[in-house]
DNA sequence: CCAAAAGTGTTCACCGTACACCCATGT
DNA sequence: ACATGGGTGTACGGTGAACACTTTTGG
């Protein structure tokens, strides 16, 4: 950090959220419809300006997230994704956005938090489709969020954050299959994840199913890293 | 991004650099001595305020980096590390710092770029030592930079960015050994890295050594990802 | 000849993959 | 009985770790 005591005028900082969840067997992202220009009526990532001069940016992201989802922070994963600062990304003024990535289980209702704005879910595929219009550079942000999510579940236990508090190995496998868009052998996956110490804690209960053997229910354990990682078939991301 | 058209007053955005290099068989980080309070006389990461309202933050980082190192951007690696926005991280005013991580080969002179400020190198170990004082929250940033670097060379070819344009397999291995602070078997390492397609391009020349068989010289090839990654012995970083 | 560093060959243990097979439930 | 999904056993192939060994230089 340099010496000097001046600020660029007309410089604003916002915190935006890329909230991912799995709904209807699809990876979906939370979007809000913009009420004013620019991009009036189009969809954008939820977010907002810093609430006060003394608010930490991480805290601002947490606040936004719990407001939008209505969930408690412990049931979510939140991490900083990247900061976007192209000079023309907002036509009104210079806006720098610190963007956060969040993983959430499927939520009872999109706007359970009581927020006035209409938050909706859209499949990530559809949001990234050529013909879909997303405000600002948010389509790029969604692309980055997807890539980060795909990489992250390889070597962490965060995939479980997409599941309900109690979930089966199948539920967890579905998360991987949906995010990676590739099938996974159920038998080997089962052995793999149950073999990681501290990842899955059996609750003692079992599912009541419509057919088939009942599955053991698990809770997420304290482990955060997977060793060795669950590697995808194809070379990482390129 | 939300609706609204106002800015927090007294909010400044800076771009800081965590530049890593290998000098004297140690991982070192570039620091500058602060000329004015706060933290006058103590060391801090190089960086600065955005040069103009229309400057992209990535471009600002590149500019700072080439100014400080005197090297052309092609010989360096630069990526965004993280944004730090704790409200009290600068006692003067609210400052949000977008921090970048850079890898550089050993440089001819620390301030070859002709910059007036005195840039120095300090071993990362020493910078992170309990008794070393570093300005602002920059010690935390250095910690994050080190962790990122350690992870990054696992699955990318970026370790070669620490080497001269032409280097041997031994040179590259030393980079890994120094950054990971752990010995690596020279034979297996050799086979591993020479086996990655597009990683190492032989120049045809060999080293002239003070003893021992001359080593083949390589240039960095177009490959960017390592598949499979070079995994460290111990569980990743925890 | 010896030391030192580069580079190759070989062995072995482990692990991911593939898949046969058994288990426990609903219909 | 049969379908459906949960979960275990096992054989095979690839790869990383360990290390003996050869190659090529300087002293």
From TrEMBL, chains A, B:
Q: What is this protein called?
A: NUDIX hydrolase
* GO terms for MF: hydrolase activity
Which CDD domains does the entry mention?
Answer: NUDIX_NadM_like
Q: Keywords in UniProt for this one?
A: Hydrolase
This protein's record includes keyword Hydrolase: yes
Which residue intervals define the domain Nudix hydrolase in the entry? Answer: 8-148
